[in-house]
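Internal tracking record. Fields below are filled automatically when a chain is submitted to the structure queue. Please do not edit lines marked as system-generated. If the sequence contains nonstandard residues, flag them in the REMARKS field before resubmitting.
Queue: standard
Priority: normal
Entity type: single polypeptide chain
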Amino acid sequence: MAVPATAHGAVPAGETSAPIRYAAVSDCTKDPHNAERCGSWWYRTTYGKRHSLNGVARTTMPVAVSGDGRRLAYIRAKDARLVIRDLDGRTRVSRAKAWPSRSELDVTRVTMSYDGSLVAVNCCWAGFTNHSARVYDAATGALLAKVPGVSVHEDALSLSGDADQILVRTDDDKSGRLSAYDLNGRRTTSVVPPRLIGDNAATAVLNADGHTVAVYVAGRKPKIALYDLDTELVTATFSVPASGQKVERDPGEGRIVEVDTDVRLDWTGDSTLRMVRKVGFKLVRVKVYGIDVATGSVHLQRGYAIAGTTDEAVSGL
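SYSTEM-GENERATED OUTPUT FOLLOWS
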């Protein structure tokens, strides 16, 4: 069960149809090499209006926005509960804490599905928590599933295109492991993919077909790779534009990484993806691409900059 609530600072009448472009928290230091959160979170709509988002916890990534920009979710500071908020200000609040351990809250991350129907919360470094990642129903705030062994810093969790499966990449094998779970928390698939997939599956998303995984392959010449969980084969790769991101080799793992870069992938249809790439520190440049995986065509949909912030949750609109 979830607790219904009335939101403060709801979107004014007349702007309820404007989706959220991004949520952010401001930077309060002038140091070009460091950033420090300043004040409350806020969000900006596609109309350009800025609205406050008060009461957000100070965790690794406490806010998520749905890919369609119609909802956001955050961990509430006063009681560590999960709050799901619609554009019109209506909210649902989880019955219990979003994460069971108060001492671990500072390293929790919130993730939301493209359609805003599911919210996931995970935590910590690998091996440093006994708690499972949690997946919530955004329509009610109810807890749906628990997925074990998913850490914020070494692993990755995403929600499928039709929001009925959970894809997890864990770093417990040489090339990582990909596992799919249903909304009861039951593991349905588990494979060790080739290094092209495993090394890059921190940005991966499962298609509604339940077996096609799209992976962003980082590098000076980035790519999208498609991998089939059933056949365990890479079925396609095609190039995507770079956005001026700095590339270096991780000395600990030997992998190519993109510095100050964050990529979000969402399936928007059976054969269409949307890629959102954020690049930069202090001044963040966002570019949004539409991708047709059937043809390999990629086109730039929009681009914009976000200045003076330390953390951003971007929808892709």
